[in-house]
Design goal:
By secondary structure, the chain is α/β, with parallel strands linked by helices. The protein contains six helices and four strands, in the order βαβααβααβα. β1, α1 and β2 form a beta-alpha-beta unit. The radius of gyration is 14 Å and the shape is globular. Bound molecules: 4-nitrophenyl phosphate.
Amino acid sequence: MTKILMVCLGNICRSPLAEGILKSKLSNAFIVDSAGTANYHTGSSPDKRSIAVARKYGINISNLKGRQFNVSDFDRFDIIYVMDESNFKNVVKLSRNDKDTAKVKMILNEVYPDQNYDVPDPYYGGDDGFENVYRMLDEACDIIAENLTK
Ligand code: 4NP
């Protein structure tokens, strides 16, 4: 059983969306979770704009709760997808060995290999930022799901 963790900064905008989108493309044989590198939003629901854009595409993420990334996540998950370079640095900083580090991947590298493009943080922008993030994550998750199930 492959276990995938989605990571952003706050765990209320991008990574809960990524979690909901990937879950919608996989069976229950896979575990998908999300976390934030910061602890600002521990226990919080996703941002209402993330909930709204997910709902628009038929995905319910309203019951998710924010939590902070923890070093034990390196043991609990096989692949750790980060949304941007800052998340990458923060997660890799916590890795204990090469095996941990090798689990950490920039999610948009699934679409644009080796380019290290960021999923932009939509928190301080408008609703169109969330639509943009949704589309990026949907494209990446299509590829991730296809590779995991073939
Ligand atoms: P996320 O967005 O990392 O996609 O969840 C953010 C959410 C909250 C904050 C920053 C980014 N914040 O500063 O509170």
